[in-house]
Amino acid sequence: MAYSRLRRSSDQRKALLRDLITDLILNGQIETTLTKAKELKRLADKMVTLGKTNTLASRRQAASFIRFEKEIVDGEAKGNFAVQKLFSEIAPKFANRNGGYTRVIKTGFRRGDSAPMAIIAWVE
Fold first, then answer.
1. Which of 12, 44, 74, 99 is most buried, judged by most C-beta within 10 A?
2. Beta carbons within 8 Å of 97's beta carbon, 6+ residues apart
3. Which of 91, 101, 94 is nearest to 55 (CA)?
């Protein structure tokens, strides 16, 4: 299956998608260009599938891709908050669903360069 290169080299593309998936997990929805949202949808569905299996191997696999975000509790930093949120909150919500965990909603065009914009969010 083909994927969009997003006019970036492979390391830049991977970094961009890592940032986007981490922001989606932490915030619940993000606004980005339509092409990036479509690529992110595929990746987000794979991350939720990893979260549903909930094994040590799947946690490590997800943690290798999701950016490390610290959770600060009582002034000291704790572990990877984004991975914990994926496995404890997001994946259990979709336990009875077989796919289609995200939705892409077209919102119009960006003012500066007329790029088509979209909001990607978790399905409730």
1. 44
2. 123
3. 91
Domains along the chain with CATH numbers: 28-122 (3.90.1030.10)
Cα-only R_g, the chain:
15
83, 89 Cβ separation under 8 angstroms: no
Per-residue pLDDT of 41-96, as tens digits, reads 999 999 999 999 999 999 999 999 999 887 676 777 677 789 999 999 999 999 99
* pTM of the predicted structure, to 2 decimals: 0.89
Q: Phi, psi (5° rounding) for residue 109? A: -125, 145
List the one residue out of 114, 110, 100, 88 whose CA is nearest residue 32: 110
Q: Beta strand pairing status for 29-33 and 116-122?
A: antiparallel
Structure tokens at 60: 């490590």
Q: What is the rounded distance in angstroms from the CA atom of residue 113 to the CA atom of residue 56?
A: 44
